[in-house]
């Protein structure tokens, strides 16, 4: 919520939406057009049951969204890239750029390797289902060819367990 503050009538695309839990964090008085996509049909079924009518959910990758689903003000990719190989991640980033309005923002939040992590945190991250956790520099290298403005921040202690996250805000221009 510190980084993403949708305004009324904003169009939001949540790539890898899972069960649509992001909707719980959007102010009920903010009338947004929420679209979620995930390749897991069980997640999409649960999202449709839980948030019936509060958003549109698609069982597909961002690349396979219907063509009318574009022109987004905000696109989210939360804890997705580290589950993908580099080529698929870059494809997702390029797809996000195509679906984003010129003045829109693309938010990425990923677990990240840093020099100061404890042994326990390193253990947890090495055993995550996503096997492509990167450094901040590596994540930025993946997005810099697609977006002209990037802001990156490392966040520690945002979870109940030791888990460091890299939040990257991408824009087409300032």
Give a summary of the structure in a few sentences:
The chain is of the alpha/beta class and 174 residues long. It has helices at 41-50, 86-99, 119-126, 136-143, and strands at 11-15, 33-38, 56-59, 72-78, 100-113, 134-135, 149-155, 165-171. The two termini are 21 Å apart.
Quaternary arrangement of the chains shown?
Answer: single chain
What would you report as the Rg, rounded to the nearest angstrom?
Answer: 16 Å
Distance between the termini: 21 Å
Strand content: 25-35%
Describe this structure in words.
The chain has 174 residues and is of the alpha/beta class. The protein has helices at 41-50, 86-99, 119-126, 136-143; strands spanning 11-15, 33-38, 56-59, 72-78, 100-113, 134-135, 149-155, 165-171. Helix 1 links the parallel strand 2 and strand 3.
Main attributes of the structure:
174 residues; alpha/beta; 4 helices; 30% strand; globular
Topology summary:
Elements: E1 11-15, E2 33-38, H1 41-50, E3 56-59, E4 72-78, H2 86-99, E5 100-113, H3 119-126, E6 134-135, H4 136-143, E7 149-155, E8 165-171
């Amino acid at each position: 919520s510190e980084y993403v503050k949708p305004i009324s009538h904003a169009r939001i695309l949540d790539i890898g939406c899972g069960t649509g839990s992001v909707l719980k964090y959007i102010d009920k008085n903010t009338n947004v057009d929420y679209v979620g996509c995930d390749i897991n049909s069980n997640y999409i079924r649960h999202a449709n049951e839980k948030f019936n009518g509060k958003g549109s959910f698609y069982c597909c990758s961002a690349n396979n969204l219907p063509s009318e689903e574009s022109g987004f003000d905000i696109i989210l990719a939360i804890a997705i890239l580290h589950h993908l190989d580099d080529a698929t991640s870059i494809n997702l980033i390029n797809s996000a750029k195509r679906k984003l309005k010129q003045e829109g923002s693309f938010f990425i939040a990923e677990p990240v390797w840093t020099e100061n992590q404890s042994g326990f945190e390193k253990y947890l991250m090495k055993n995550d289902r996503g096997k492509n956790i990167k450094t901040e520099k590596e994540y930025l290298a993946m997005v810099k060819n697609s977006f002209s403005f990037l802001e990156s921040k490392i966040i520690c202690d945002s979870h109940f367990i030791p888990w460091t996250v890299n939040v990257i805000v991408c824009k087409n221009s300032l």
